[in-house]
Amino acid sequence: MPAAAAPVAPVVPAAAAPIATVAPVGASPAQHVATPAAHPTHSAPQAAPVASAQHAQQGEHNPPAPAAQSANATAAYPTDAFGRPLYAGTSDANGAPSYATENGYPTEPIPPLKKKDAGRRRGTTTLIAALAIGAILGGASGAGVVALVNSNQSSTVPANQSQGASSVVVNNTQSVNEVTAVAAKAAPSVVTINVTTANEGGTGSGVVLTEDGYILTNTHVVTLDGASADGTVKVTTHDGKIYDAKVIGTDPTTDLAVIKLTNASGLTPITWADSSKLNVGDSTVAIGAPLGLSGTVTTGIVSALNRSITVASSAAPTSPDTTTPTPNNGGSGGPFDYYFDNGNGAQQPTAASSSISLPVIQTDASINPGNSGGALLNSKGELIGINVAIANASSNSTTAAGSIGVGFALPSDLAKRISDELVASGTATHGLLGASVGDAASVDTSTTVGALVSSVTDGGPAASAGLTKGDIITNFNGAPITDATDLTAQVRAQAAGSKAELTYVRDGKATTISVTLGSLSS
Is 255 a catalytic residue? Predict the structure, then answer.
């Protein structure tokens, strides 16, 4: 099957469907990244000493360095515990054994460190590693992990988490690494979300936005993949506390939602990273509740950037949930089947439709149903993305497996903008280009990939910027555009009324223009 046809599924609520009916998100976890530390190197064998300046002033000549001693030559002398030859039965004025010399120089290089000395150096390395972890954690939590690393005692949590349950367990204090530090820092900012109706239920994840309990998650978590507009929402924090929650706002266009905990205080907000600074190959750590297993930590890398996917919309129905909906994508396994949309990529719907296009970070950190809405973190424990979807190697929901190593997260820059707008007003805005586009690669005469403009709206942003039918859009705000899905995802990620730089090809010539986006109707 061609790679582009690989199905993609939101990281759906775990409890709502068996694994076989969910296109699992995720990938095999990569190796844990060891904490950077300045490992001291052992000294090289010491060279023969050079005659002092005093000797030179007295007219003494530096004798040549002795030739390498043969086994027979050194065997003539007794040796000490290091294997260095001794004058037979002699010692110096201080009682230390005298070493065999030739022309005033040792016949053997100084031996390596003894094991106990090497052990001391390893201890120094451990301390450096602990300090590096402390720098990631900061404050009391950092001090707690440093204390763990330098202690022979076992503990289940950093020092500032001594009360209640915890999802970060540290049993071997001699092998605390960077991933442990990231998990210890971010775990208090990740929650497990349970949504139930009279007919079904599911589990997802979320991240803490504020101390008083605003939580960011996916729309498909709080709507049970578009099945319900009025589910009961319960949230469990990392320390085992359970809160009631209400939905503040959903944004089906980006599959993001904000909920608010009731009577919450003292929560730990997530630390945001700048997702525009990511590189392919950067370390990633995912935290969430795959298959309902709260506090699960997996690792990987950023495996691709500027990726775009199309999934089914999870907009809540306009009426209360009364029946289990049929799949809106032609699947056969219930509302948890999400596959790539192979439509023509029309760029101008009047509202969030049956499918949405999302700009995503691709990662091989292992994520599965239930990771939805959870955190994708960098090596500093900062949020780089919200886990949202997975690729499935099979289009048949009855044979769908778990994590296959291709997972997707909404970039933190997009998630931050949407969450701010949802908290402020309960709704979010999105850009509109005012053009319908298709895939340039599908046209025989095309000489480049991109989004082929098939029509423009009179008086719309595209027309006002000078775009016409037949133009091929190849870049949008610095992101490469390879097809209609890329363009749709990038335009929708922008706020209504924002300005963007757009590059198009016409008659073989590339031109860059500025366009002021319109507003997508909701």
Answer: yes
